[in-house]
Fold this sequence. Notes:
- This protein has a seven-stranded mixed β-sheet with strand order 3-2-4-5-7-6-12, sandwiched between helices. Strands 9-11-10-13-14-15 form a six-stranded mixed β-sheet, sandwiched between helices.
- The radius of gyration is 21 Å and the shape is globular.
- About 40% of the residues lie in helices and about 20% in strands.
- Helix 1 (about 10-20) packs across helix 2, helix 1 (about 10-20) packs parallel to helix 7 (about 140-155) and helix 10 crosses helix 13 (about 365-375).
- It has about 400 residues and is of the alpha/beta class.
Amino acid sequence: MTEIKYMRGNQAAAEAARLARIEFMGAYPIPPSAEIMESIRTFIEAGQLKAGFIEADGEKSAQIACFAAVSSGCRTFNATSSQGLLYMHEALPMISGSRMPMVMVVGNRSVFAPHGMLCDHTDSISQRDTGWIQLYCETVQELFDTIIQGYKIVENPTVKLPMMVCEDGYWLTHSLEGATIPTQEEIDSFLPRYEPRLEDHLEPGGFSVFTSFGIMENWFSEFKFQQCGGERNALKIIDEVDQEFGKHFGRRYGGLLDSYMLNDAEVIMIGMGSVISTVRYTVNVMRSAGRKVGMVKIRSFRPFPKEKLAAAIEDSKAKMVVVIEKTHLGALFDEVRSSLYDLDNRPNILGFGLGINGRDVMPYNIVDLFEQGFQNIGNPSLPKTSELYFIRKKELVE
């Protein structure tokens, strides 16, 4: 029987992996995602999950173990954060380039230096070009559902790529929220057991053939061409799987992106992750006061939904777009700006990095950013890069 449980994000992630019937996890603990591997280990020891488990000597070794497992045809899972994700960097393009479908949860956390333990997206965004799909979650429920969807997406024979499912550190990893947890039978009806094709796993002629340097010099570009095709196909499959999930369970997340109150919006805010809940609340408050604002939640950062975003903004006829992101890198701002470049009636665009290393983002901050958007409609001299918000400029020494 379907249950509503109060769970931390990490608990929901582990429960989703169990119900997805993962067959292997390679792991090394790092906060704020360490609880996931602890829960998986507990499931195995209690007989609730039949899976292999290796606690490696570090994150890179853990990911190499996952590479071996998924290459042999196992439904494979991992979880990490921050420096751990950076440490396993070398293994990430190995898995994506070999077209191996696995899911890894990233409990987003700032990276050193300076030392920080709280949430921002710098860890996963820094790995955006390693060939992994990246989906960002707003709530604990969405996290659970996205992991289930994730295996359906990556195991599609037209995709065959790994995925990072990103949950904001502490805001989601350690926050209790109600989540509807389907039964094993309900999950199985949507996500059958993984039945890998032999030719895709260490078989000559398949995606992941390991061969000599001489041959790869001649065929490297063709391998990458196939990988890029998988990324393009994922744009379609992410939307299709989300729709199918909605038919099974009554919950949908927009696939690649979700829009809210765009019809007559003059200023639209674009972001991703848990901050979207604050933005949505603020949109409702400002709408009640007569301010024409709207919101777009980017769910898929890789592959980035350029065409779908451009169509949504063009249809809205908005005059200003405000991009917010939990990094100092301006990566989301650059993607949005690029996506809207060819629009005939391109809106002005402002970008802000905020909430870095867990700094609170309050509704009045979102109001302020919306108002900056209104004030700069038609301004021909806007910055061409993202700027950091919340900076104590008076206290800084140049």
